Amino acid sequence: MRVFATALAPILLTISPAAAQDHSAHTQTPPILAAPAEADPHAGHSMQMPSDVAPPTAAGDGSANAADLYFDPAVMAGAREQLRVENGEVITHAIILDRLEATSGNGAERYAWDAQGWYGGDINRFWWKSEGEGAFDGDLEHAELQLLYSRAVTPYFDLQGGVRQTYRPEGDRTDLVLGVQGLAPYWFEVDGALFVSNEGELTARAQAEYDLRLTQRLILQPRAEVTLSAQEIPEFAIGAGLSNVLAGARLRYEITRGFAPYVGVEWSGAVGDTRNLVRANGDAPEATRVVLGVRALF
User: Fold this and answer.
1) What is the pTM of this model?
2) What is the dihedral of CA 248, 273, 201, 267, to 10 degrees?
3) CA–CA dist 120, 127 (Å, integer)
C-alpha cells in the first residue's frame, strides 16, 4: 500500500487548482443578438388636420360631418343617404288580418273581423285599424275604422293619435283617438286607447294577448279585452264605469308564417250598469261562443 501511494504522489502534484477549474476547452453557445428594428414604412408621413380645425377632445365631441373637410361634400351626402336607406328610415308596410271568424253560441250564428296595418319607418308610421261584427241572418251590428299617426316613444311602444269612425244601427259616432300600442314585458301584446266622440262621450278600451308556442307551428293565444265609459250612454246600452269584459283563447296552426286557421272559445259579458241596460233592452248580458277562423299576414 505504501509503495502504491509513493508511485501516485508525483501524478497528483502535477494537477494544479487552476488547471482543475479550466473550462477553456468547453464549447459555449454565443449569445442571441436581437434583430435590427425594421424601418417604419410610415416614417416621414404627416397626418395633420387643417390648422383651423381643433381635434376633438373625446369621441363624439367633433362635428357630425367632419368628413366633409377631407372629401367632396356631394360624395359624402350620397354616402349618408345610402347609409340611411340601408340602416335607418327604411319604409315598410304590413297588413295583419288578426281575426276573420265565424262564431256560434246562444242560438246565433255570427261573423267578426279584426284587422290592422301600417306604412312607414321605424319611428313614424301611418296606422289603420278596423273591426266589426254582425249576424249572418241579420244586419251589421258594429263596425269601426281608425286612421292614426304613430310615433315610437320607446323601443317597444308606439304612441298613436287620430280619428275613429264608428257605425251602429242606433247611430254613428266620430271620435278623436289617443292610444298606445306595443310589446309589454313577458311578450304580451297590448293595445289601449281613449276615445272622445263628437257628442262629448269619453270611453276607453284596452286589450292584451299572448302567443304561447306549443310547437313551432301550433300556437295557443289567450286574449282579453275590457271597455269603460266615463258616463252612461243609453243609446248604446252602455253604463258608466267598467261596461264590458271579453276573454277567450284561440288555437291556431301556422301552415305558413302568413296563414293560420284556428279554433277557439270566447266569453263576453256586460258588467255593472251596462248589464242592467242590456237586460232592459231584452238582450242577454253575456254569451259564450265557439269560434272558427283564419289569421293572415301580408
Assistant:
1) 0.72
2) 10
3) 9
